[in-house]
Specification:
The chain has 8 helices and 2 strands. The chain is mainly alpha-helical. The chain has a two-stranded antiparallel ribbon. The chain starts with 6 loop residues before the first helix and ends with a helix.
């Protein structure tokens, strides 16, 4: 099993995932607006028509259209990518993955618990996310809730060519350093 991923790496991956989900949701709503225009309807007109019948219904539709669609798309995006790839696009870019107990793959129910745990972690001023900074295993509340860990997806390996260049360079650096010391002593 790899090393536990740190706060900054996890935060960067999370922000990339938010960007992906937000852009995808915007694209979907753009396509819906184009389809409505094809049939002679305007998305704003549809919302205003609903608003004229009931303010409560309008509020429900607007909240569902913006927040609900993003919530559902985020759920599908995260849970299925965790299940099938062990990582989302953001996690892949940052070189980390989500694993279950003893390195197992994330199941649908574990992924669903983890996604719901995202929201629980966010409720008290994102304290559940900052929990990564406190624990030795670098787990957030949603990791504890779902019994998952986030690890680096690669093992750090040094390039043989790099090691060879460093080995050849060190004697030269040492010789120059010693020469400067000798000059300062005089």
């Amino acid at each position: 099993m790899g090393h536990y991923a740190g706060f900054v790496t996890r935060l960067s991956a999370f922000l990339i995932d938010i960007l992906v989900v937000t852009l995808t949701t915007s694209l979907i709503w753009g396509v819906v607006a184009l389809i409505l225009q094809f049939f002679g309807l305007d998305l704003n007109t549809v919302f205003y028509t609903i608003a004229s019948t009931s303010q409560v219904l309008f509020l429900f539709v607007v909240v569902f259209a913006s927040f609900g669609s993003t919530l559902v798309l985020g759920l599908v995006y995260n849970v299925f990518l965790w299940m099938f790839a062990g990582k989302t696009l953001g996690k892949a870019v940052m070189g980390i993955r989500v694993i279950g107990p003893r390195g197992s793959r994330v199941t649908f129910w574990r992924g669903l618990r983890r996604y719901l745990g995202y929201w629980i972690s966010a409720i008290p001023l994102f304290l559940g996310y900052f929990w990564v900074l406190v624990t030795d295993e670098r787990v957030a509340w949603h990791d504890i809730f779902a019994r998952t860990h986030v690890i680096y997806d690669y093992e750090a390996k040094y390039s043989e060519a790099l090691l060879g260049r460093l080995a050849r360079m060190i004697p030269r650096v040492e010789k120059n350093f010693n020469r400067e010391l000798d000059q300062n002593d005089e």
